[in-house]
Each structure stands twice: as C-alpha cells, then as structure tokens.
C-alpha cells in the first residue's frame, strides 16, 4: 500500500472511531477532532457515505450531523460452549438481530468447526448484506493475534487448535477468535454508552467458573501466556474443596454458580433447590440466609480482586453473571468487602456495576471485536 493510501485509510478510521465513541457530529467537528483538513474530511465522508457505513441525519445537507449508519453491514458472532454453539447477527450499533443455537454431539475441534460453518453459511445466505467478518468466543486460553486456542479444558481438553485458520478456510471470511470473558468485557467497553469512554476497566464474570478481564488505557490485556484474568484458580478458601483443574480450594470451588447453588441448597427453609443464577437471585430476595451466603462469597471474591484493583486502579468494576438480578445483588456486599481490603487506596472508590447477562455480552462483545476491526481498517475488509 502506498504512503498516501495508508494515510487515507488512517483518516477514514479516525472518522469512524470518533463517530462511534462520540456520537453524531458535523464535518467541521470531525475535522478538528481528527486533525484533518475540512476539504479532505468532505471527501472522506463522501467515500464512507457511498459505502453506507455512515449517514447524514439531514440527507444532502453539508451542515448535517453525521452518524454511523445502522443497517449497512453486520458482524457474525459465535459463542462456543461445551454443549452448543450460539450464532448471532450483531448490528453496528450492538443490537443482536438474530440468534440461533446449534446443539453439539461432541465438542472436538472438527465438530465445532462444522457446526459454526453450517450456522454462519445459513446466516450469510439469508441476509442480503455482506458481513464484515466473524468472531468466535471460546471458554479457554486464546491467542487472538493468531486465532489459536492454546487450551480449553471444558472442550474435550483442546490444546493448540488453530481454530481461526480452520474456520477462515471453510467460510472465506475474516475470523477473530477470543476468550469469552474478554468478549464480555468488550461488549461494555465498545457498546455501552455509559462505560465506553472509560480507559481502565475490570470485569469479573461468575458463571460455571470465575474469571476476570481487564482493559488498561483502552487496550484489552491478554498477558504473557494469554491467560490474564484467570482468578478462578487462585486460592479462595481452606475447606479442601476439589476443583476441576485438579487442585484444592480454587476461588471457583466457592464462588462459581454451581458452588453457590450447592451452598444455598444446604440451607434450612430452602424448599426448591436453585440450579441457576436467576434462582439464587429470587431466593436471595426472600431469605436473609441466602444474603449471608452471598456476603461470604463476596468476601472471598474481594480478597482475590483487591490486588488487581490496587494494581490497575480501574474507573469501574463490572460484575457479570448469567442473571443481571444476581449480579446486582452482589454489588453492595462486594463494594463493602473491597473497601475493607483496599483500606484507603483510591481504587476503593471505583464504581461497581452489574453487567449485561453473560450470553448477551459474549455475543455482543464478539460482534464488537469485528466492528472495531472494521472501523480501525477505515471500513475496508480486513
Ligand atoms: Zn482450579
């Protein structure tokens, strides 16, 4: 690519990213924000209008505010779990406009690639628009730069699976592979109006397991071996509970949804045993003893999260789980315990907020990764 073409692509990207983060604005504002001459902005905007990626709120007027156009392109997001693949269409504004589940007979790499291939082809065939790309969320250690799954214990113990290339070859579409918790964080950092301007974020997800995802200075943190945020397997107690990783007393054995369900089921006065986060939330609204269980687990989680909060000083800690009601119930006890752990540190004043339901944030976040890449590429295929 020539120097001139590269510069043009950079300017197109600056316009798309400023509109995404800043909302609608006029050409003159974009010229100032992106530091591009007004005549060039007009020319670049004409190209993006032509592509359908942006629109004028007053069509044909040179003074009209410009905004990202909703329906011009879309991302495909696939969420892999041990038993099924959920595939969704994510629009440029983060709306999930279509979602389908494909049950998995077994979860070997070949079976997963075949199921994703089938679901994606089905979507591409029935949508007249051209997709910007596809993203796959995986419960395990992933290197997003190569698309490789390094390890996924819940998926018949995958090791070094070149998932990105396998799917790209099948679909002839650009494919991004990332970890599920990082997708969940990204859904908020990329789409959530209140949160997307935050540069430093910490997300903790409580589901079948427990893990974190972190963003610093606007960048997702992967870590040296791509396992940053795996707090589910640090020590969380001393009751000799066996973890599925083979070790004893991991945070997951105390704070995952199955562990909490077991603890709540053992309480007196619990007639119907909970099996989901939503069940725990509805029992928690009735029984003070359930609130005590949540308080104890918040103490354990706070002990694991506090050093991370002290290290990164986030603006916000997001709590994710399959049920926003359950996540909301953890905000107050977790805040209290984190303040107790962090004493006078500034990080103790970070706001603690419930996240979207995990399935929604996984799909929207995966879609958001594709849209981010599309915009950073100036709206060109990547
Ligand atoms: Zn463990």
What's the layout of helices and strands?
Layout: H1 3-22, H2 27-34, H3 38-51, E1 54-56, E2 66-68, E3 74-80, E4 84-91, E5 96-103, H4 109-126, E6 131-138, E7 141-143, E8 148-152, E9 158-161, H5 163-171, E10 175-179, H6 180-191, E11 201-206, E12 210-216, E13 219-220, H7 252-255, H8 257-265, H9 277-286, H10 288-312, E14 316-321, H11 324-342, E15 351-357, H12 358-376
Parallel strand pairs: 3-6, 6-10, 11-14, 14-15
Antiparallel strand pairs: 1-2, 3-4, 4-5, 7-8, 8-9, 11-12, 12-13
Helix pairs in contact: 1-3, 2-3, 4-5, 6-12, 9-10, 9-11, 10-11
This protein binds zinc ion (ZN).
Zinc ion (ZN) binds at residues 233, 243, 245, 247, 250, 252.
Structural class: alpha/beta
Q: Please, how many helices?
A: 12
- Described by the principal axes of the CA atoms, the overall outline is globular
Q: Mean pLDDT, as a whole number?
A: 94
Bound ligands:
zinc ion
Radius of gyration: 22 Å
Return the CATH class of the largest domain: Alpha Beta
CATH architecture of the largest domain: 2-Layer Sandwich
Strand content: 15-25%
Order of helices and strands: HHHEEEEEHEEEEHEHEEEHHHHEHEH
Uncertain segments = none
Number of domains: 3
Specify the helix fraction band: 40-55%
User: In what order do the strands lie side by side in the largest sheet?
Assistant: 5-4-3-6-10
């Amino acid at each position: 690519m020539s120097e001139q073409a590269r510069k043009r692509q950079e300017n197109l990207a600056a316009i798309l990213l400023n509109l995404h983060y800043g909302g609608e604005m006029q050409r003159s504002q974009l010229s100032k924000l992106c530091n591009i001459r007004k005549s060039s902005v007009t020319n670049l905007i004409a190209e993006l209008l032509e592509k359908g990626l942006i629109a004028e709120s007053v069509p044909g007027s040179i003074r009209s505010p410009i905004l990202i156009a909703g329906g011009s392109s879309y991302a495909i997001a696939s969420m892999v779990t041990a038993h099924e693949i959920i595939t969704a269409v994510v629009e440029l504004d983060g709306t999930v406009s279509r979602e389908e589940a494909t049950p998995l007979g077994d979860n070997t790499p070949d079976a997963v690639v075949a199921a994703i291939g089938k679901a994606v082809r089905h979507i591409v065939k029935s949508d007249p628009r051209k997709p910007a790309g596809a993203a796959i969320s995986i419960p395990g250690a992933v290197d997003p730069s190569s698309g490789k799954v390094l390890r996924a214990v819940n998926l018949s113990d995958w090791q070094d699976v070149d998932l990105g290339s396998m799917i790209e070859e099948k679909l002839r579409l650009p494919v991004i592979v990332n970890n599920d918790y990082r997708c969940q964080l990204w859904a908020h950092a990329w789409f959530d109006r209140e949160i997307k301007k935050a540069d430093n974020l910490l997300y903790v997800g409580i589901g079948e397991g427990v893990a974190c995802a972190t963003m610093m200075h606007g960048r997702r943190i992967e870590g040296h071996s791509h396992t940053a945020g795996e707090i589910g397997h640090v020590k969380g107690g001393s009751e000799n509970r066996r973890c599925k990783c083979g070790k004893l007393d991991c945070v997951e054995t105390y704070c995952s949804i199955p562990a909490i369900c077991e603890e709540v089921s053992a309480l007196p006065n619990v007639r119907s045993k909970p099996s989901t986060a939503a069940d725990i939330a509805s029992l928690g609204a009735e029984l003070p003893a359930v609130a005590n269980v949540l308080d104890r687990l918040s103490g354990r989680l706070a002990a694991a999260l506090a050093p991370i909060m002290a290290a990164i000083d986030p603006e916000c800690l997001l709590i994710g789980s399959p049920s926003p009601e359950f996540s909301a119930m953890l905000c107050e006890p977790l805040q209290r315990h984190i303040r107790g752990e962090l004493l006078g540190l500034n990080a103790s004043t970070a706001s603690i907020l419930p996240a979207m339901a995990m399935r929604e944030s996984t799909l929207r976040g995966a879609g958001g990764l594709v849209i981010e890449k599309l915009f950073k590429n100036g709206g060109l295929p990547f």
